[in-house]
């Protein structure tokens, strides 16, 4: 057998990249690579990159710059760039940073082993195709080793919506859904390895329409299929577009016990003028109506959202409407960003760009309000008894760390239960980022 080689993968961006990195590590594992936790030990460094905002993309080049000294020490070290920057910039990456050997886009990961072989023979290798074949059919599944109780599972990729700010349709390509049977088998495999909580991933996951028998299944149908797996206890999905929040999917929140009462549903802005300019094709009111229906179907549902401030043309009045929507909904969790111009997107050429200082001011105001609501929501957990999935050991002796249905981290000293169990804990207090609790019962 040939000597094992060390692989260091660094993942940027969304959960989809986290999932892809895991699949790539498994696939390269079959080629004799074992994962290490620092670039200094590596024979191969792989950056799985994100192109969503300018800052995310620029980070890659500063990381690559730092690897120069490693390559000087070890001339056999190979460096690959995968993910959305690879897709968007292609060979430009090697032009800008010649120490890069491999550039591979998100739809070509199953070709990575062949690319590495050609690189080992001294050639650079670039693949940013959107191939006909489905990469997931060709990527090997993970060995049957125990793993952490929460996992991501990509069920859908790509996007056909073309929001005016967003690179995803360009980096991840057209919308595609994996077949139900393929997802079901993968979910069963994860559950056999100890997984109890699965988050179904897709850039447009609620538009899911994968084949099941001779017809296409919807996301709620897929969720109902997966809920039949006995030891799978929790199901989540992210990220969704308001326009694909069908009544069937809303109702599923009331019908499927395993579907968690927590939904990430980005609105981006509370102003109809901005939403139109963003090509969102929904209004603030239609969004609010969906939230109302969800709360009717599942009264304990908590919401999470994404916001962009300073989209071209956004006025003070538009921004005020975003604050109003936030005050009305009270998100349990939210992500907010300054608008960042992305090459190739339709808003990029707008002459109505908002000055940076105004963007910063608005972001600070919005984040202040969002974090106030976030704190209130977390505080409202104190005194309650909540089901918590125990995920990993804590820093202190005998301490375990778990997650509530709302994804709050919980610390408790427990000797009655073990990792992978769902136990009832009494919430004693809330710290900045997590809850403290004590064991009550199984
Ligand atoms: N600028 C700022 N934020 C963006 N997002 C997507 N594209 C941009 C951009 N060009 C945000 C959106 C999206 C989240 C994943 O990232 O809020 O929902
Ligand atoms: Fe970033 Fe979007 Fe690519 Fe995820 S899909 S890594 S958020 S650009």
> What is the number of beta strands?
21
Low-confidence stretches: none
Let me know the largest β-sheet.
Answer: 6 strands, parallel
Query: What gap, in angstroms, lies between the N and C termini?
Result: 47 Å
Bound molecules: 5'-deoxyadenosine, iron/sulfur cluster
Strand order within the widest sheet?
2-1-3-4-5-6
Strand fraction equals 15-25%
CATH class of one domain: Alpha Beta
Helix content estimate: 25-40%
- Determine the mean pLDDT: 96
Shape: globular
Which labels suit this protein?
442 residues, five-stranded mixed β-barrel, single chain, binds 5'-deoxyadenosine, OB fold (Dihydrolipoamide Acetyltransferase, E2P), Rossmann fold, 21 strands, 15 helices, 34% helix, alpha/beta, binds iron/sulfur cluster
Characterization of the model:
Helix 11 (247-255) packs parallel to helix 13 (284-297) and helix 14 (316-329) packs parallel to helix 15. 42% of the residues are buried. A hairpin with a 3-residue loop joins strand 20 (422-430) and strand 21 (434-441). 34% of the residues lie in helices and 23% in strands. Among the domains are: 5-127, 3-Layer(aba) Sandwich (Rossmann fold); 385-441, Beta Barrel (OB fold (Dihydrolipoamide Acetyltransferase, E2P)). It has 15 helices and 21 strands. The protein is an alpha/beta fold. The structure holds 5'-deoxyadenosine and iron/sulfur cluster (SF4).
